[in-house]
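Researcher: Hi, I'm a grad student and pretty new to this. My advisor asked me to get structures for two proteins we've been looking at. I'm not sure of the right format, so I'll just paste the first sequence and hope you can take it from there.
Model: That works fine. Here's the first sequence with its structure tokens right after it:
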Amino acid sequence: MRETKPESIRNIVFLSYSGAGKTTLIEALLAATGAVPQMGSVTVGTASMDYEPEEHHRKISLQTSLCQISWGETTLNLLDAPGAPSFYAETRQATHVSDAAVWVVNAAVGVKSEWEKASDYATALALPGLIFVTGLDKERTLFRPALEAVEQALEIKTIPVTIPIGQEAGLEGVVDLVSGEAYRYPADASGKRQKCEVPAALKEEVAAARKALVECVAEADDKLLNTYLGEGTLSPEELMQGLKLGTAARKFFPAVCGSGLKNLGTVELLNAMVSLLPSPVDRAAVRPVEATVNGQRTTAVSPSVSAPFTGYVFKTIIDPFMGHMNYVRVYSGSLATDAGFLNASRGVKERGGKLFHAIGKKYQQVDTAVAGDIVAIPKLKDTQTGDTLAAENSAVIIPKPPLMRPLMSFALEPKSKADIEKVSLGLHKLVEEDPSLEFQRNNETHEMILSAMSQLHVDVTFEKLRRKYGIEVNVHTPKVPYKETVRKTATAQGKYKKQTGGHGQYGDAWLKIEPLKRGGGFEFVDEIVGGAIPRNFIPAVEKGVVDAMHEGILAGFPVVDVRVTLYDGSYHDVDSSEMAFKIAGSMGFKKAVEQATAVLLEPIMLVEVNTPDDFMGAVIGDLNSRRGRIQDTVPKGHGTIIKATVPLVEMLKYQASLNSLTGGRATYSMDFMTYEEVPRELATKIIEEHKAARGAVAAS
């Protein structure tokens, strides 16, 4: 196996929307390079890159897949990222470790809004890229209109470097505008092109397209512009030089055309990826990776083989046969098989192990990984997605990409009570594979809660839970963690007296309850003087109050934001005990709450909606209908960020409504802000429903 150098590596993420044909295009590249004997099919379920049963069932990518292929002397690490917004966290991690992108647009489908988020992050990283227009073998498809749609959607400038020979069913090849040569592709989807003459009918179009290409490249570089003005043209070598410079600076995005399904135009794409996209060394020269040292100062990570080893874990899978498998982008130095290193993010040493390159789920062992490489490392004990691995004498941390919080939550319970612990174990493993999931036990509602990005995300997760771990669950909307409090001050006596023969029970406590400001929690004040209650019994009174706070008098929700003052009482020398005063404290608290005007509280969320301006009015109207209060609107690009406070109960199914309102183009996030009093009419309904539910449980 030949030695790989950072200069000969390309790390490229393939980005698009769901259904564009991105995975099919990569399957064509695998066949064209000879990495696989024949092209796999997404439709039939034989694709190398979509190998999970859930992907076969839905015919879409649900996770990032890696393939590593060679083209000439260059190693191409291609990351097939999901186009569905539900799995955008995978796409963002893949983009984070890439040096360039290939944007895939299907001329038969057009441009979808789904890739706006991917575009925003790629722009934030100043990621250079190519455009591949696929699907040109389908009816009513044209190359130029497809490029115009891309330019409008991504707000970029494109420049064709190939144009198609034929159209629709008659598509048979491409013309390379840099070299001026034409190629026809066979019908067997092998990707083995044959050189041919430029069709006479195309010569005028080719000449015009090449002139536009030369002018675009010349305008992007002063030296080339002078050459063009002096000689009236640029040589193929000068064109390639200018294309590479302009691409790296994102002055334009070279566009290649063809058909992934017919494996047509793929050789030109391979050549463009090698010639025009940056190596890890090129990328670091323009945009160095900044890592933190000791959580403070930053340092640039050098893409040199001689530098200390640094790597970033961007993906974790749990394979039934190989166990945990961490995918690592090596940023500096080199890593040999079985070499130990430090997990700098967690401060623990890892023993290391074998190193693998991958094509989908097929792994090939390698001896060494160098700066710029991507390898899979199995069986690391303490390493997870987002961790930085480093040489022990050079512990730096590479920042993680920001990920959106999950938007939909579901309460779940196993269909078999015997599977409770298995559910927790299985979901924790799935969360380790997919950090955009969150799983927790709610201490207030005693429910297991799974939070995800969408209904599709949840469905896929439960399918994996059933397939991998043999567990089935029942799912329902989670309970809202309501609370209770009081509006005014009140006093009450809690007196517990019981005579049972022999020693009795006696405890007497006078309590004052008063409201605290929202978020004030609980305060217990001891104002006993003169020994009205012995000091050793006072903690028992507090414990009785705290126990009573677990279930309020309205509907059994916890009581919060109150101050309870113990100011008087009495005791019996023989019959008083800690238990008696604990019961007295509980009784006194409940009586005081009854007189202090108990009210119901609901969680209020701070919501931010990022919407295109076209839908701003509809989104604001919808938030108002959910009892939301608009706090601010902030322009951002061609959209607006709407900030509002909204009750949690009104947001439980917001994702579907927002998608319907905006055609899936708006996104939102929310975080807990505070608790507020529930309006009286709603509170009455909620209290009645919960009392009925508790009664039904008691009756059963």
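Researcher: Oh nice, that was easy. Here's the second one.
Model: And its structure:
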Amino acid sequence: MGGDHGPVVCVEGAVQACNEAGYPLKVILVGDERQLVAELSKQNLNGAQIEIVHAPDVVHMDDPATDGIRKKDSSIGVAMRLLRDRTGDGIVSTGNTGAVMAAGLAYLGRLQGISRPAIACLFPSENGRTLVVDVGANPVCKAQNLVEFGIMGSAYSRSVGGINNPRVGLLSIGEEPSKGNDLTITTHQILAISHLNFVGNVEGRDILRGRADVVVCDGFVGNIMLKFAESLQGFLTNAVRRQISSNYFSRAGAILMGPFLRRMKRTFDYAEYGGAPLLGLDGMCMICHGSSSPRAIKNAIWAVERGFDQKVNERIAEAIQREGNSGRPKAGVELKG
């Protein structure tokens, strides 16, 4: 209910997810029943399994994050309780990210061994996709938080991405272990003795090059990088259009390159990825852009289902246990900082 377009795109995306899945899939729409019924009446349900659960209140985008807890009857609050009670298997939300995080912590709690949940985001790369953790949930971090981000990202990439032994990199200002601030230097030392497939420091340019399958950073850096990446599609599209309209030969060439240009646009289209998984909560959660399209909602629903089916949270818990006391460094290792 709290997304930029209200329930319109969520309803359409949910119907698309059910109709195009090719197998039985049920979606519970949580929000104002009157509006949801009206939107559903405009859709070709074609037997789609859609249920409505009424939630009279809304957490708006400009509301404080604590409203995710305070407004118990909001669509976010009701949906979280449905997940807590195992009425649902996962949540997709286009609403207030802070409220989703607050409600998730209040109703679901953290996975054992996780100190801070984190938002992960898939970026296109030369090798396919790179998962970056964290992109906004934790602007201030300790080294142990970043280690946990690496563990969660690795488990997600292995379970949902199908990568057998994900390469984990630490975002820094240079490849050398001594490069960076105290946070990255200490984190590098811990990751180097972990069970993760740690490939060392990576720089910003290495993300699109696909040097690592998982890139770890604090939420402040990650969110700046995410917002910059979001601007790329519009910038590149406008630049291509200007060049195409510059002369007749460019326009003629664009006709021949049409299929290629459309494929390139899809590469940078966030709707292809659905949303950003919120890792570390005791339940599958997917946060979508407030202005998400129905296609993005559809893909987000499918991504949450894959995460549940592949037991992502169980894999995270196993990895945390394997690291031993949340991946803290072994005795006798002297850490800088």
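Researcher: Is there anything I should tell my advisor about the second?
Model: You could mention this: The beta strands are 26-31, 49-54, 90-93, 118-125, 128-133, 167-171, 197-202, 214-216, 276-279, 284-287.
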